[in-house]
Fold this sequence. Notes:
Order of helices and strands of chain B: HHEEHHHHHHHHH
CATH architecture of chain B: Orthogonal Bundle
Shape of chain A: globular
CATH topology of chain B: MetI-like fold
Low-confidence stretches of chain B: none
Structural class of chain A: mainly alpha
Strand content of chain B: under 5%
CATH superfamily of chain B: MetI-like
Order of helices and strands of chain A: HHHHEEHHHHHHHHHH
Number of helices of chain A: 14
CATH superfamily of chain A: MetI-like
Number of strands of chain B: 2
Number of helices of chain B: 11
Mean pLDDT of chain A: 88
Number of domains of chain B: 1
Strand content of chain A: under 5%
Distance between the termini of chain B: 53 Å
Shape of chain B: globular
Strand order of the largest sheet of chain B: 1-2
Radius of gyration of chain A: 25 Å
Mean pLDDT of chain B: 91
Strand order of the largest sheet of chain A: 1-2
Largest interface: A-B, 92 and 93 residues
Radius of gyration of chain B: 23 Å
Largest sheet of chain A: 2 strands, antiparallel
Distance between the termini of chain A: 42 Å
Number of domains of chain A: 1
Oligomer: heterodimer
CATH class of chain B: Mainly Alpha
Helix content of chain B: over 70%
Helix content of chain A: over 70%
Amino acid sequence: MTTASASKEPSRAVVNWREFAVEQIVRLLGLSAIALVALIFAFLLKEGAATLQEVPLSNLAGTRWYPTFGYFGLVPLVMGSLLVTVGAVLISVPLGVGVAIYLGEIAPEPLRDVLKPTIEVIAGIPSVVLGFIGVLAFSPLIRQYLGAPTGLTAITGSVLLAYMALPTIISIAEDAMDAVPKSYRDAAYALGATEWQTIWRVVLPSARSGILIAIMLGVGRAIGETMTVMMVTGNAARIPTSLDAFLRPARTMTATIAAEMGEVAQGSTHYHVLFMVGITLFVLTFLINAFAAVALFRSERRGGGRLLS
Amino acid sequence: MHLTPRATQRIVFGALTAAMVLVIIPLIFVIGYIVVQGAGAISWEFLSGMPRNGMREGGILPAIVGTLFLTLGTAIFSVPIGIGGGIYLAEYAADTPLTRAIRLSIINLAGVPSVVYGLFGLGLFVLFLQFGTSILAGSLTLGILTLPVIISTSEEAIRSVPQSFRVVNAAVGGTKWQGIRRIVLPQALPGIITGVILGLERAAGETAPILFTVAAFFLPRLPHSIFDQTMALPYHLFVISTQVPSMPVQIQYGTALVLIVFVLSMNLTATLIRRHYRRRRQW
């Protein structure tokens, strides 16, 4: 470097200082993710912890949710969330994995290029729009064809939630199958296996950890969905006792918070309990996602490729 | 009956194709139905007028403007932090337990239920920081919700720039940050923009996080400042489809139509940007 050009450039010390500053700033921004998770938990606790002083545990563990009469049993809400989520998973996982197989292994290239962005559009539909269509157009079908007394039932919510979880499940399952080495397939073909035998006996078993991650993240999606569920499940807090429960209204944790928070006085017991419901949801989704994340890191270290993107 | 492997394959592939069709049809139905039912409601007055007669007549301008402001507010907050975080993870972070903790946090942030973000926004921004129910509180809440999407898509876009670009930068005497700023980021820009748009698309369509942080049930005027409440399209659709008795159906569909056009045009833009640059890319 000549002296002439060096005089135009900032000095070495300035450059070094800038490098250092940039690294510290972006590191801080990266670390903010950890800080935010902690902050969310801290503020949920701050507003919700008073529950434990105000409401006896036996009440919280009870089976009745009648806040106006002082009954804050969380069991029906948790069961309601589980019911709707289980229904959603039973529908979305086979369908999602099936579509992923279709996209990854069967669809011709040009069709695939059209279908993949189209599926992303599903993820873009706001949940309130899906709820709106669910109430007006979908729930009458449930009433008519499944013989439910009302169209606003747990299964209505499950079907719509399944639909919302599909893009997540499809894209992660497809990536997982894509990451299976070509040599595995070639070996199967060399043994005379058909394409389907190869997919079923070789590709799917090799991709199972990725598919499990897809399922976990899909479950996390479904359990946390709020607006659609609030609009289409009928919101009756009761404990499911048989399969019939799918054809009856259900009340989830998310819908309870969304529906009741606007009407409670700040600092009241009911207010604190709603934050407690939020803590329950946060912890539940945290565990599900942490489990998925750990599985994800493990598959990456084995050279499974990046699954989340 | 015993099927040959070939016959089994034909049946299974048929079923999988049917699954694909089963997934696409509702999407076409939902969008088509809203367009058909809602198109009649769209007029200049509907788009530029104030709601009247308990929202049963008039327009939805305050909700449109509110959603625009909230989307912009979300971007101001989440774009710089998100891209910075992406740069850190792609270029600086070594594979340490701390880095893994950051990744774990991002996956978890992406999985926090949207209504829990609403509770958090209420606790931190509305009450503790005393921003009140305001555009500021709502934008910050939506910004945090959008952050994980922007961080992970920026990281991916930056990582996909070939290593050789960085090597050349170092070979001609460029420092790490010079290489990132002048070579890597420009190359990664289309990918980053795509991620930002997809993140903002989600924020624009969310209802639960704004329920307790910004959304006004009925406020027939435009917001005056960032400390003002505002109506917003998703919440407005929720209100008029569930909370207002004898609401004309056409206005509901019209509002849904405006919302999906707003959100899906962002989606389309992102897809087109990605496609355009993927085709032009030399590496």
